[in-house]
């Protein structure tokens, strides 16, 4: 599993329990999911300064984390979530925060995340952070596209949806009403779908497998 987990002393035992519980659920990747919503941040000149991302972990993963945090003596759930948020940030920083951003096909350099929080919201572990774009590209006359995915496809990352359609708040851009926002569905090759379905919980697929199953957020501006 590539997604960051609690590694502090006293919490390590939850990893074993989680792996056992997940392994009996089903063979094949993915083994969990994250619901995301993204807000494109811009400055007064219409340049993209960052992506405000909200990740909601699936209910099962969230339940295991909350139960283990509450079992730790001498601390509170909020303190445990603060520590977990820091660990998530640190681990994601080694994997480009699971995020690729392109403007007119050119990949954009990402900055380091310094604003983030982990919390319990409606029974789900929720991680919120701002991912800066180092180059601050202009949106005027350009097309911005991003993908958020676990490279191993152990976890599936999807935009918030209702009735199999992205919600209005799944992708948001304020103060630039002429831009067209779309969440494009993934269209993986059937052979890759079959290959992923055959991977066990402790197996890895081809490098970057998750990219082929990733939705694409698209912002087209005149």
Brief write-up:
With 222 residues, the protein is of the alpha+beta class. The chain is 22% helix and 32% strand.
Give a description of the structure:
The protein has 222 residues and is an alpha+beta fold. It has one domain. The chain is 22% helix and 32% strand. It has 4 helices and 13 strands. The strands form 3 sheets. Strands 1, 2, 5, 6, 8 and 11 form a 6-stranded mixed beta sheet that branches. A 5-stranded antiparallel beta sheet has the order 4-3-7-13-12, with no helix packed on it. Strands 9-10 form a two-stranded antiparallel ribbon. The radius of gyration is 18 Å and the shape is globular. The chain starts with 12 loop residues before the first helix and ends with a strand. The relative contact order is 0.21.
Describe the oligomeric state of these chains in a short phrase.
single chain
What's the average pLDDT? 85
How would a textbook summarize the main sheet? 6 strands, mixed
Q: Please state the overall shape, judged from the principal axes of the Cα atoms.
A: globular
Work out the helix count.
4
- Work out the radius of gyration: 18 Å
Q: How many domains, in number, for the residues?
A: 1
Distance between the termini: 41 Å
Structural class: alpha+beta
Helix content: 10-25%
Q: Return residue spans where pLDDT drops below 50 for at least 5 consecutive residues.
A: 1-26
SSE order, one letter for each helix or strand = HEEHHEEEEEEEEEEHE
**Strand elements, count:** 13
Estimated share of beta-strand residues = 25-35%
